[in-house]
Design goal:
This protein is mainly alpha-helical. The protein folds into two domains: 2-113, no CATH class; 150-240, Orthogonal Bundle (Arc Repressor Mutant, subunit A). It is built from eleven helices and four strands, in the order αββαααααααααββα. Strands 1-2 form a two-stranded antiparallel ribbon. The longest helix has 30 residues, at 109-138. The chain is elongated.
Length: 241
């Protein structure tokens, strides 16, 4: 009977060939974590009150801020990609580590919350910039005609081969282009393409990245899209004049 009870209340997680025993079920573990955060928030808030040597009103405020800060700890752990909460369900010593972390956050609740707020703002700003770049990349840039006056091209610091590579990268169905693909589409030899790519990268008109197969790929940057658009506009204006 006892062995059956232990089997029911201590589930296991199979990971490959190894079996990891959990300390408690998910529902009980969630309750334990909430209790830990509440206790840590109260204890840390009281400690912060005595450290600041404030009045009774500040004591209640310190306890409130302490609880809030302790409740935010899981968010912080997720932001830094920590597995502490997962590990704490398998190792009891990690529960004490989590408790200490929550108390520490509660003691320095004001600074902790301000830092979390700043980190969230930075991440939101970074996500907004990435979305903007993705939207920009999804829109096909204006391209100059192939018979464009080379004086306009040279005024941008480009030669004919470099313009050809910019056009091929922007027109292709692949956003990220390989060296062999560029060689095939442009008809240029590898040495010429290498020289052009290095020049365009130095001028920030294209960027490079390594994909998940450790292969180097090239793609049009925002500066490159801007230059192509300007060339197209200038060509149209010269035709109209």
């Amino acid at each position: 009977m006892n062995s059956n009870q232990i089997t029911e209340t201590t589930p296991t997680v199979i990971n490959g060939s190894s079996v990891e025993t959990l300390l408690m079920t998910d529902s009980i573990y969630a309750i334990v974590i909430i209790i830990i955060m509440l206790i840590a928030g109260i204890v840390g808030g009281i400690a912060a009150y005595y450290l600041n040597d404030a009045d009774d009103k500040s004591k209640r405020r310190s306890m409130t801020l302490g609880i809030v800060a302790a409740m935010i700890v899981p968010v912080f752990l997720n932001m830094i990609s920590s597995h502490l909460l997962l590990d704490a369900q398998k190792e009891v010593d990690k529960l004490f580590v989590f408790l200490g972390f929550c108390v520490l956050a509660a003691v320095f609740s004001r600074n902790f919350l301000e830092n979390i707020y700043n980190k969230v703002l930075q991440q939101v700003g970074s996500m907004g910039k990435q979305i903007s770049n993705m939207e920009q990349a999804a829109n096909e840039p204006d391209l100059p005609d192939e018979d464009i006056d080379m004086k306009l091209v040279e005024a941008k610091g480009l030669n004919e081969n470099e313009l050809t590579i910019l056009r091929i990268i922007s027109e292709g169905r692949y956003t990220y282009r390989s060296l062999s693909g560029l060689k095939k589409d442009t008809g240029l030899d590898r040495k010429t393409i290498d020289n052009c790519l290095n020049t365009l990268i130095s001028k920030t008109m294209i960027n490079s990245r390594v994909n998940n197969k450790n292969q180097l790929r090239y793609y049009l940057s925002s500066e490159g899209r801007k230059v192509l658009g300007e060339l197209s506009t200038e060509q149209n204006e010269s035709i109209q004049n």
